[in-house]
């Protein structure tokens, strides 16, 4: 990604603010005797990331999260999140039921962001002692691009986009970042128990399935079969079609988990007997609406009444959303 003129100006502004406020990269201010004022006050730990080793507070008190999908993990780990970005940019989100109480008790605020990047001044104003970004999708590329600027504000940990499904993201955060193996084991065990229960209770659709997410302008994006949701549902017997593996498609962005289809490609690609339909970051469309469009109504899944709606948040689910997705699958195929 290229840093835009706005982004470069913002970075310069943040650098100036850092100088004025006396902030520095992972270092305490020197006292009269030359020692660090923070030395001995707060223990630190070293985390290995794709950007190298990062020294972070052992017990961070003000965490900023730059990917909505990662925020749920932090609340599951009882980490103090002072601010996070919303699911989509240019609007304030709403806290999901699973962590709304914790977010409200922490006073968690929404951070503005856009296609140009994160609002670095807003991140600075949140006064974080730890920044966590990365994960899947567009926020990953933005975090990697802004890493040097973010690291001037506070120690910054990027969750690698290769960490997928959600168990790998949770393990990295719980074990590597927060040294909380016990909570990780407990959460994964609860999920596995529920997954096995759902697997026993459903009759999976026959044949291969495809997963399609639609943006607000109804552009179709196919979810790559070896990532995220398709991998999770294979564990309950729903087999994903190898469209990306066998086709000639490119992910939509760095660490992207989807690829776009033109109207002409829809009929040639989505020939599976079963389709899952979901919105992208919002309920942008549904099976009923698409069935009025001849591009989709002529697809085998629509003709055989085997096109199913999934909630938009199932696309890039964290732990809570993965549990809720199992509920939806059980209800659909019980």
TrEMBL record:
It holds the Pfam family Peripla_BP_2. Residues 62-334 form the Fe/B12 periplasmic-binding domain. Gene3D superfamilies: Nitrogenase molybdenum iron protein domain. One of its GO terms (cellular component) is outer membrane-bounded periplasmic space. One of its GO terms (biological process) is iron coordination entity transport. It comes from the Bacteria. Residues 1-27 form the signal peptide. The keyword Signal applies. It is found in: Cell envelope. Belongs to the bacterial solute-binding protein 8 family. This is ABC transporter substrate-binding protein. It comes from Candidatus Nesterenkonia stercoripullorum.
